[in-house]
Amino acid sequence: MKIVVLTGSPHKNGTSNTLASEFIRGALEAGHEVLRFDTAFLKIHSCIGCDHCGMNGPCVFDDDMPKILDAILDSDMLVFVTPIYYFGFSAQIKGAIDRFYSRNGQIQRKHLKSAFIATAWNNDNQVMQGIEKHIEILIDYLNLDNAGMILAKGYGYVGASTEKHYMDEAYRLGKSV
Length: 177
Known about the structure:
Layout: E1 2-7, H1 15-29, E2 33-38, H2 65-73, E3 77-83, H3 91-98, H4 104-110, E4 113-119, H5 129-142, E5 145-152, H6 163-176
Parallel strand pairs: 1-2, 1-3, 3-4, 4-5
Helix pairs in contact: 1-6
């Protein structure tokens, strides 16, 4: 299977990127092909809702999104990985998700498998409520098949007591898809 992993952390060695790497390690060991895009380090312009693309064409902006969208449309699975800073996707990955607009119909028709990994400093029940709802809506809207979700509460820094548990979980998810 071809898997595209979109990460949203500006911290190259942060918790969400650590889990992304473990997911990828498991997926590669299972024989899958993985392409990773670290959205925080790419040139991605925010969608301005101009409708130039007509939801099925080129965007007015010349940036890195076309290669990401082409890779998604050539894949079998899409994995979203984000830190939680303020109860939802990070701004970096959210900007990329907003740009899916230019290929909505094509993505919906692909019926891709998907997985979601989120990390948060807090370990209370409220911290993941926003992202869970957003993920639920995204799965429905984009016609995705959810293959798994890791909501890593209490994992706000590398070396946290929860780290090994969540790293193992991310590896197993990658290995199982």
